[in-house]
Amino acid sequence: GAGVSQSPSNKVTEKGKDVELRCDPISGHTALYWYRQRLGQGLEFLIYFQGNSAPDKSGLPSDRFSAERTGESVSTLTIQRTQQEDSAVYLCASSQRPGPGTEQFFGPGTRLTVL
Amino acid sequence: GENVEQHPSTLSVQEGDSAVIKCTYSDSASNYFPWYKQELGKRPQLIIDIRSNVGEKKDQRIAVTLNKTAKHFSLHITETQPEDSAVYFCAARGNNRLAFGKGNQVVVIP
């Protein structure tokens, strides 16, 4: 079946502009995660959605970052007034359910470059 | 929250030798420990995982060991091959989300 997909694959923007990144999780997966991966660095948790529960936003680095998810489908991550330090690969992952032992399947990522 | 650390940051091994990567975690309530492999330019993929009620798990050339008392777990790759060259991330889950380490770059020298 289809895996997690993300769009766009690459995004180049100018400092100060807003960007919107999209994630389509695997159908039926209730949990969805966003991570940021700077060049040569690890995976930095941003936000987590689980069903209709309130999202865990504890990883969002500033109020310029926000994310939405409609039900158990697509999610969008929005970065307002982008800064050069926002340049990174943004990875989305989904899992069938929360809790231990549930594999997270990653999308291919969106590479964001802020000039 | 959970804090996961990986050592060493880079590991070079001769083809055929073994590679060991160690991770420590801070939250004693963490109960699930996966390892992800990320090849250059590709997405992370799960290669093996272990739950807190198990001390060791093996899958062909890879194995993971867990020491709950010391709060550390390790990935063991035996008979390394060039295709094992990648970045390996450990993670620990205490609540509903994973905390990842910063990754280990493993280079297998032919």
Task: Please supply descriptive tags for the structure shown above.
heterodimer; A: 115 residues; mainly beta; 4-stranded antiparallel beta sheet; B: 110 residues; 5-stranded antiparallel beta sheet
Q: What is the radius of gyration of chain A?
A: 13 Å
Largest interface: A-B, 23 and 23 residues
Number of E-state strands of chain B: 11
Number of strands of chain A: 10
Mean pLDDT of chain A: 92
Summarize the main sheet of chain A. Answer: 6 strands, mixed
Strand content of chain B: over 45%
Describe the structure.
The complex is a heterodimer of chains A (115) and B (110). With 115 residues, chain A is mainly beta. Chain A has strands at residues 5-7, 10-13, 19-24, 31-37, 44-50, 65-69, 75-79, 88-95, 105-106, 110-114. In chain A, strands 2, 4, 5, 8, 9 and 10 form a six-stranded mixed sheet that branches. In chain A, strands 1-3-7-6 form a four-stranded antiparallel sheet, with no helix packed on it. The radius of gyration of chain A is 13 Å and the shape is globular. Chain A starts with a strand and ends with a strand. The mean pLDDT of chain A is 92. Chain B starts with a strand and ends with a strand. Helix content of chain B is 0%, strand content 57%. The relative contact order of chain B is 0.35. In chain B, strand 7 and strand 8 (72-77) form a beta hairpin. At the A-B interface, strand 4 and strand 5 of A face strand 4, strand 5 and strand 10 of B.
